[in-house]
Amino acid sequence: MTRHDKPGTGAKANAKAGPTTIPNPLPWRGDAAARAAAKERAGRSALGPLIVRLYKWRRMRDLAVGLCWRLEGHSMFSHSLRRILARYHKVEIGAYSYGDVMRPYAVPPGTRVGRYCSVGQQLIVRRRDHPMDQIAMHPIFYEHRMGLLEHDMITQITDNPLRIGHGVWIGDRVTILGGCTQIGNGAVIAAGSIVTRDVPAYSVIVGVPARHHRMRFDADQIARIEASAWWEHSLTQMIEAPVLEELSQSLRTPPETQSGTPTGT
């Protein structure tokens, strides 16, 4: 990703990319590991605990978020921003994930996002709907926070949390409604889609409402990717050891030949 790229842009156009797009080896710079380690160290600023406490005061929140970006670099590396989201917004974001999920208030409490996720701009996540089975659907008649009812007349937002797996790509202007509670590992949601149901791992979904377009890999390849749990490695580890390269090679090798078993008769 170049510095001018926007996260998630063009998911629909690029949805046909496959495992052969990973060269072996990846063209890492000679100092890539050192650069990655420096970014990870910067993401844990010595001022981090102070920034997190500063966020407690609403008038200081923009300043605190700005300090996260300034002192800890890109949101994909900021440890303090993740602590802010977890402590004050009840949102858990895995390492290296970036995009709109890193923006305070962008996703509702209870949301959990895995590692290495790429999320586009203008994400909308809804966990509950207006009660269409009632005569009046205005929030005055179903929301406690309006100050007139003793309790909510519909389920709480935290009763329907959203779980996003690892290595997921969500394009720009995606809307995720309450019928979707799980987005599996490696899934792709095309730009502009409206998601109304759970998204299977490694599937590509497109449209309004979003429908299954295709699987990124076959069942055997998916099993190997899941077994590898590549997302558990740090970025530095991924550079120092050819984790993705070896996995990509494995996906191109028939399972019968991986253990040395002859494929002919």
Structure description:
The chain is 26% helix and 12% strand. By secondary structure, the protein is α/β, with parallel strands linked by helices. A six-stranded mixed β-sheet has the order 2-4-7-10-12-13, with no helix packed on it. A four-stranded parallel β-sheet has the order 1-3-6-9. Helix 2 (48-54) runs antiparallel to helix 3 (61-72) and helix 2 (48-54) runs parallel beside helix 4. The longest helix is centred in the first third of the chain and has 12 residues, at 61-72.
Architecture blueprint of SSEs:
Elements: H1 32-42, H2 48-54, H3 61-72, H4 79-89, E1 92-93, E2 98-99, E3 112-113, E4 118-119, E5 124-125, E6 163-164, E7 169-170, E8 175-176, E9 182-183, E10 188-189, E11 194-195, E12 203-206, E13 211-215, H5 219-228, H6 235-240, H7 243-251, H8 255-258
Parallel strand pairs: 1-3, 2-4, 3-6, 4-7, 5-8, 6-9, 7-10, 8-11, 10-12
Antiparallel strand pairs: 12-13
Helix pairs in contact: 2-3, 2-4
Descriptive key words:
265 residues; alpha/beta; UDP N-Acetylglucosamine Acyltransferase, domain 1; 3 domains; six-stranded mixed sheet; four-stranded parallel sheet; 8 helices; 13 strands; flat
